[in-house]
Write a structure and sequence with these properties.
heterodimer, A: 95 residues, mainly alpha, two-stranded antiparallel ribbon, 3 helices, 2 strands, 4% strand, B: 473 residues, alpha/beta, Amidase signature (AS) enzymes, eight-stranded mixed beta sheet, three-stranded mixed beta sheet, globular
Chain lengths: 95, 473
């Protein structure tokens, strides 16, 4: 399987150099070729497993607790803040 | 004082009998870290000042008769575990200056039990890797031979315990990241059942596979730590509501009459001769201890890595999407090669037109892998109590050997990934040496059978006593 690295990188919000594109295309195609051995398995009628716990509808008590972070603590890792908010650059400027 | 080979048990006993103080123990570990870790590179952050302050407090607590299960125990944490006020990097430049504002559940539990954090350990960035070499903070060296890998991804935690820089270190195991490095460094590594230990506050790799465990010198130490970390916390919805068992209670009951399975699919293909010999020796010892060994079949084992590299990378691509440098952390350009590879693989297999062929199919094969184990553990139709397999198809390889061949690196997890796919627990215990490098075996059991794994591991360890051997640094 050949992989369109440029397209995938755009979808994944990654910026690659031409050298990286070349290297990753080769490596990822090799890995995908290996993964295709899954085609040898007969999966007709087999239910997919997305989780192994068997738990369903796990809900949290609907009480408001005081263990949530304060605004200050939540912002403590922010590079830039203003009036108690994260201050960020505009992100929808390309398209 | 010499702390090189102290176990948790001997440290806590020593406090009780006033053989040494917490301060002496903590100081001695810090001294060893200073002396040896420049070369080993097992720590990313050492919390010297804080640890010494804590040690003083714990000595006062001891004098005041405070009783806590791990009072004064020094610990190290893989740098995937969020620690309030202590830098948590995921060994990646993306988070190299990130300081969390809360603790992971496991960190809170260990601290509440009286433990003292010595520091944060090195590992493959985002826990992606089998050798530790994907760390943005440089590779960790194997203390048994510094030209060799200690295994990964929890490389620093395994090495810190093996080299006597801490008596216990935590780890995460998504496809073998605890069991593989444990077997490469002659320490005990536990991957608990998925849903036994909270993932809250641990940087997510692949959420349906991540298991939170630890490294210790001995099996009983491992049981002791699980007793503290296991159980519901109200923050991780995948945790079981069943109360954790008493993991120390049946530890010394022996293994006479237990049925142990040896899966034929693990012992044939590509298994290195040295590993095969060590494994056969271990099986013989377990038989001598009174267990009955029989051949079992796990027919989908050979599809383990392929299944894992579809499911895991899909979940990685989604979990790492949140690191956009907008609220905290650095830009996505700071991701290393391995993270980029996994993000792109996952993005590809989840993208329109490929989902059914890759992701859905892998989830179906996941069902078949689970069923293989369920059948093997079904005692009502001739099944076994637990399964014994090698921890790695090879002994440790040289640093640098596989860095340019990601697929070869992925295949080193061939014997560990299926436990994560099925969500079952695995315990890696030392099984000897080859050319001075450690070899390990894994004991796998049904979901929530950690008590049984400890019992088997303990019997094996008492007979072999490999934990008494320490590397020459």
């Amino acid at each position: 399987m050949k992989i369109d690295v440029k397209k995938v990188a755009t979808l994944a919000n990654l910026t690659l150099t031409p050298q990286e594109e070349h290297k990753f295309e080769k490596q990822l195609s090799e890995i995908l070729t290996y993964v295709e051995k899954l085609n040898d398995v007969d999966v007709e009628g087999v239910e997919p497993t997305s989780q192994v716990t068997g738990l369903t509808n796990v809900t949290k008590n609907d009480n408001f607790s005081d263990d949530s972070l304060s605004q200050n603590a939540a912002l403590s890792g922010a590079k830039n803040q203003n009036n108690g908010f994260f201050k960020v650059k505009a992100i929808f400027d390309n398209e | 004082m010499d702390v090189t080979n102290l176990t948790i048990e001997s440290i806590l006993d020593g406090y009780k009998n006033k053989k040494f103080s917490v301060n002496e123990v903590v100081e001695s570990y810090l001294k060893r870290i200073k002396r040896h870790d420049k070369e080993l590179n097992s720590f990313i952050t050492v919390c010297e000042k804080e640890a010494l302050e804590e040690a003083k407090k714990k000595d006062e607590d001891l004098a005041n008769g405070v009783k806590l299960p791990l009072l004064g125990l020094p610990i190290a944490l893989k740098d995937m575990f969020s620690t309030k006020g202590i830098r948590t990097t995921a060994a990646s430049n993306v988070l190299k200056d990130y300081i969390p504002s809360y603790n992971a559940t496991v960190v809170d539990r260990l601290k509440d039990a009286g433990a003292i954090i010595l520091g944060k350990t090195n590992h493959d960035a985002w826990a992606h890797g089998s050798s530790g070499e994907n760390s943005d903070f440089g590779p960790t060296k194997n203390p048994w031979n510094k030209e060799y890998t200690p295994g990964g991804s929890s490389s620093g935690s395994a090495v810190a315990v093996a080299a006597g820089l801490t008596p216990i270190a935590t780890g995460t195991d998504t496809g073998g990241s605890i069991r593989l490095p444990a077997s490469f460094t002659n320490v005990v590594g536990l991957k608990p059942t998925y849903g036994r230990v909270s993932r809250f506050g641990i940087i997510s790799m692949a959420s349906s596979l991540d298991s939170i465990g630890h490294f210790t010198k001995t099996v009983s130490d491992s049981a002791r730590i699980l007793q503290t970390t296991a159980g519901k916390d109200g923050y991780d919805a995948t945790l079981s509501s069943d109360k954790p068992k008493n993991y120390l209670k049946n530890l010394k009951n022996g293994i006479k009459g237990l049925r142990l399975g040896v899966p034929k699919e693990f012992v044939t293909k590509g298994l290195q001769k040295e590993v095969k010999n060590a494994f056969e020796g271990a099986v013989k010892i377990l038989e001598d201890l009174g267990a009955e060994t029989l051949e079992v079949s796990l027919p989908h084992t050979e599809y383990g890595i392929a299944t894992y590299y579809v499911i895991q990378t899909a979940e990685v691509s989604s979990n790492l999407a949140r690191f956009d440098g907008i609220r905290f952390g650095n830009k996505r350009t700071e991701f290393g090669d391995e993270a980029k590879r996994r993000i792109m693989l996952g993005t590809f297999t989840l993208s329109a037109g490929y989902y059914d062929a890759y992701y859905k199919r892998a989830m179906q094969v996941r069902t078949l892998v689970r069923k293989d184990y369920e059948k093997a553990f079904d005692l009502s139709s001739g099944g076994v109590d637990a399964i014994i397999v090698p921890a790695s198809p090879t002994t440790p390889w040289r640093l640098g050997e596989k860095v340019n061949d990601p697929l070869a690196m992925y295949l080193s997890d061939a014997l560990t990934v299926t436990a994560n796919i099925a969500g079952i627990p695995g315990l890696s215990v030392p099984a000897g040496f080859n050319n001075g490098l450690p070899v390990g075996i894994q004991i796998l059991g049904p979901q929530f059978s950690e008590d049984l794994l400890f019992r088997i591991g303990y019997s094996f360890e008492q007979k072999t006593e490999y934990y008494k051997q320490t590397p020459n640094l």
